[in-house]
Design goal:
Length: 135
């Protein structure tokens, strides 16, 4: 992570630091900066170790790139869905069954099957839904 810093920019920052801090105090400032960076690294390493300890070994198995929310761009998802090849075999359903029956010359099956109770309703027993009326 260079943050867009080129060698020329780093030299310019160093020159400005020498002019502001002064050549006498520059080694002490550089040592202080080194110690601060080491301390921040140590704190980050300790925090990573604590997270691993508290969450257990299954944390190491997690694919964090797969869980990146930036990959769920709606425009990309729609574009991929529109450009994807359609499935070759249609899914079986009422429409597929009706077209197959029309091709074979058979009557098309009904889309909704209504269950019929074989026992007729009597005066003592209430009629059930889907039953034929008594005759």
């Amino acid at each position: 992570m260079t943050f867009g810093l080129t060698i020329e920019k780093l030299l310019l920052i160093g020159l400005i630091a020498v002019m502001i801090i002064g050549p006498e105090r520059l080694p002490a400032a550089a040592e202080s900066l080194r110690r601060t960076i080491q301390q921040v690294r140590r704190m980050a390493r300790t925090a990573q170790e604590r997270v691993r300890e508290e969450l257990g070994p299954e944390v190491a198995d997690v694919d964090w790139q797969r869980l990146d929310p930036r990959q769920y761009d709606p425009r990309r998802i729609i574009r991929e869905a529109l450009l994807a090849e359609p499935d070759a075999a249609p899914t079986p359903g009422p429409t597929a069954a009706a077209s197959n029956a029309a091709e074979s010359g058979e009557p098309a099956p009904s889309a909704v099957a209504i269950p019929v109770d074989p026992a007729p309703a009597t005066a003592s027993a209430p009629a059930r839904v889907g039953t034929a009326p008594p005759q």
